[in-house]
Every structure is written in structure tokens, then in C-alpha cells.
Amino acid sequence: MALFRRGAKGRTAEDETATGTDAVEDTADTATDAAEAPAEVAQPATAGPVDRSAGPWDESEDVPAGPRVDLGALRLPGVHGMELRMEIDKKSGTVTAVGVTLDGSTLQMQAFAAPRTDGIWDEIREEIGASVGKQGGAVDDVPGPFGRELLARLPVRTPEGRTGHRPARFVGVDGPRWFLRGVITGRAAVDEEAATRLEDLFRRTVVVRGTEARAPRDLLALTLPGNAEGVTAQSAPAGAPATPSFDPLTRGPEITEIR
Fold it and tell me: Whole-model pTM?
């Protein structure tokens, strides 16, 4: 069965369960076949230049006015009902990523320094694909609203203890000396209509790179929202990584704020 759209208009949610859960459970036969077959990793394609006239923007560009949540390296458009989840490096206290949940789906964003002339999204897609494949998942490199993107099946264990896969979309945009990555999970990963609000939020995000010299792939650290009332901390899982990683299956400790 096909799981993904083959482009902006061709994707379907055939493999999503009728209840809209994130994990898609495999049958016993399918799980056995998958274990015997080599991991499916699509060959990388070149992303090419992306029109950013409608965003994501650099802070130096002509950014349309509107309310935004200032998170340091990122300024997110304020959307009623969105839930922010800030991932934190336990050792350094650095905020490494922000997750925005809307209508049951989530968009996680991170910003990184990039070379002045060349983008890094082509390289990052290849690395993510290899990482997912090594862990038993599969990826498909396809065109999307932000250029090339990865549609992935991330391996998970269902509550019943069976093998399943969670769909996810990896999107990325190369900007002036920065790279913005997004990971979409939930129904928005397989349903075009459900993805509209999260795609719009990603598109209207502003990246604050700064003028200091940075090595390519250096994480642009985030900060907590200016209004931190109601923010609660969550305990860190054992073995949380000390440094940020491009590994899509790794998460750090988080705090949450509902706006």
C-alpha cells in the first residue's frame, strides 16, 4: 500500500488508521517481510533554489508585520490555540528545538548556521535518510511546497507490543547563511489538508542568524518565550544527548507552554 503523496497534490493517507493515530501497525507477515528485506532508502535528489518571497524569511528582509513569538533564533507567528514545546539540552541548558502542536499534529523546528554560498539541505536529507534506514524505517525523497522533502516511516512499537511505523515529513529551507529544518508528525504528515496550518506557520517563520562567525551546522540556540508564565518543566529521559543531533528519532527534555 502507498503511504505518501508523490508531490504536493498526490499524497494519500491510505496507510493511516481510521482513528487517525500516528503509528501505523504492521501485520505479522508485513513485519516479517520488512525484517528480512533491506531498508529502503531513496536516492538523494538536488533541492535547487527555493522561492522565499513568501517565507521563511531572514530578519534582514522585508518581513510582513504581524504578531510573533520571539524565541531568539526563531520568531514564530502567533497562532491561537498552538502549543509550544521547547526541547532543552540537560547539561548546558540550551534550548535546542521548538515543537508547535496544532489540531493534533506537530511541527518541530531547528535552525542552523550554513555556508555563505552553498546550502546544506541536500546533504542533511541524505543523512536523515541513512539514519532512518539504519533503524528499520524507510524514506521517500519527493517535491513539496518548500522544495525537496523527505516522507519517512519511522519504526515504533505499538502499545500492544507489535511493530509499527509512524509517518513523518522532513522539510528544509536554505536561507542566507542559515538552514531551517522542520519535522511534521501526526495526521499532517500524510494528509494535505491537515498540513495546511503547520506549513503556513513554517512559511511565516523568521530566522535570526546574527552576524557572528559560525561553523556550518552550528545550532542557532533558541530562548524561552518572553512570557514564561504557565510554563512547566518535564523530566529528562535517561541518556539524553549532550549535544544537538540531526537524528530524527532522538528527543531531549522539554517544557511546554500553551498560548
Answer: 0.73
Report yes or no on 147 lying in a domain.
Answer: yes
In a domain, 13, yes or no: no
In this structure, is residue 116 part of a structural domain? yes
3-state DSSP of the chain: CCCCCCCCCCCCCCCCCCCCCCCEECCHHHHHHHHHCCCCECCCCCCCCCCCCCCCEECCCCCCCCCEEECECEEEECCCCCEEEEEECCCCCCEEEEEEEECCEEEEEEEEECCCCCCCHHHHHHHHHHHHHHCCCEEEEEEECCEEEEEEEEEEECCCCCEEEEEEEEEEEEECCEEEEEEEECHHHCCHHHHHHHHHHHHCCEECCCCCCCCCCCECCECCCCCCCCCEECCCCCCCCCCCCCCCCCCCCEEEEEC
Residue 155 lies in a domain: yes
Q: What domain range is 67 assigned to? A: 53-258
pLDDT per residue, tens digit, the chain (259 aa), is 334 443 434 443 333 333 334 454 443 333 334 334 444 444 456 656 677 888 799 999 999 988 899 999 999 998 888 999 999 988 888 899 999 999 999 999 999 999 988 899 999 999 999 999 999 999 999 999 999 999 999 988 888 888 888 999 999 999 999 999 999 999 999 999 999 999 999 999 999 999 898 999 999 999 998 744 333 333 334 333 333 344 544 444 444 444 4
Total of domains in the chain:
1
